[in-house]
Amino acid sequence: MTGHSPTEMMVVAGARAMAGTRVCFVGIGLPNIAVALAQRTVAPAIELIYESGVYGARPSRLPLSIGDPCLVTGATAAMGMLELFQYYLQRGLVDLGFLGAAQLDRYGNVNTTVIGPYDAPRTRLPGSGGASEIAQNAREVFVLMRQSRRSFVPRVDFVTSSGRGLSRVITDLGEFAHRDGELTLTHLHPGVDVDQVREATGWPLSVAADLAESAPPTDAELRLLREELDPDRTYLR
Amino acid sequence: MSKVVTMAEAVAAYVPDGATVAIEGFTHLISFAAGHEVIRQRRRDLTLCRLTPDVVYDQMVGAGVARKLVFSWLGNPGVGSLHAIRRAVESGALEIEEYSHFGMVGRYAAGAANLPFYPLRSYLDSDLPAVNPALRTVRSPYDGEEIHVVPPLRPDVTIVHAQRADRDGNTQVWGLLGCQKEAAFAAAHVVVVAEEVVDPQVIRADPNRTLIPGLVVDAVVHCPRGAHPSFAQGHYDRDNAFYLAWDAVSRDPARLAAWLDEWVYGTADHAGYLDRLGADRWTGLTPGPARSGTVDYGDYR
After folding, report:
1. Which UniProt keywords apply (chain B) (predicted)?
2. In CATH, which superfamily holds the domain spanning B7-115+152-285?
């Protein structure tokens, strides 16, 4: 299999970062694909938790929403959300959670609430959902998103969830880790240079001394993505 | 005594103008039929509570029934925005009170358990408490730890859809359970909308599956497929095509008004809505069987 898209590289990097993860709190969209890929490659023992109230999901199709019936059929447990948030998340049983972000700043603060002032928003976004509690209670938190100056901003308009718990950001250009209180570029994807990342980052970019290049997706990874996990190319355009 | 009534009777009796209403169900079992009847009866000034307002509240806000929205995630799941609500929020026409999912669930739990607040580990360094003064902190009297708290939420009426209930309102649900149990126990009145109204013996044969007892239920409405376009586990699938198509409808106020005219004001009840939807709609939405095993409760006579 030859060639790969930046989005495929991002999802593959996200999956590899989950090596050894046991319990993962999953969102919809790209993280869902990354988790499914990890389950078939580096993290075969991973257990999926969905905030809709499912532990140990084995989805038989790619769910459009996090409340899809395919998450329940064949799962280890289905429960009320109070039980899930209290006993699984707040109890500290979740190793890794994924957050979506409309805006992200250099400290890892995430905004999914408003663009512009809260009381007179230019754009009203969905809000927290489970993000605020996932950020605080999951052992590690990843953001998986395409990178641009529009989304990687000097200061988020609203802190929906604090950057304190955010450990890694994986984008279509490279990978960031939370080091010394700020997001630091640790990996470049093949064919990307630091200037490209700087161009797509709205704050003075901090680059790790040990900056590395991500290994390109393997044939096996690409085959799983294209033939099994997203054959209709719903997410991996 | 049977509590079975029509949807029109239930809404007329338990959803007055100005009421605080929770139509709960997380993606699963959302009573669109109840939402439509509230629109048909032209209720006004409602405070609508739901973790995820979903398309049902987008329709209700678009129809002008609401004054205020209490929520934790405002979107069309897997699709994008709820445009009618977004327009109302951005123009300032709709008041909002915003939490996180755990915060909303905790609010119902405090209401259900008759407690003054619910403590949770969330909102640390978030801007949410700055814009919602109901998000506060208390100090533990045991070790001094400071923790965020949310106030109880006690709806005037909670409306839930379920796979089955008996005539007294004893209600069984399987699949995603959301926060219907907490929202029901927290409310002054409860309306249960059921795919099937079953003999009490069906309920008693499987007591662990009872989510809400008739003890807290005021009315039972028999309304098959009343959760469309959301789903009822084992009965019908989520109509994702409807959710995807809703985006273009709700984006345009004129199209939204035409949709409400055709599908809500233009139908007498949910049976009329289903007629318009047509029988063919269900062919792709009917799952195959995946039956649970049975357990033996034991006979102790």
Report:
1. Transferase
2. Glutaconate Coenzyme A-transferase (3.40.1080.10)
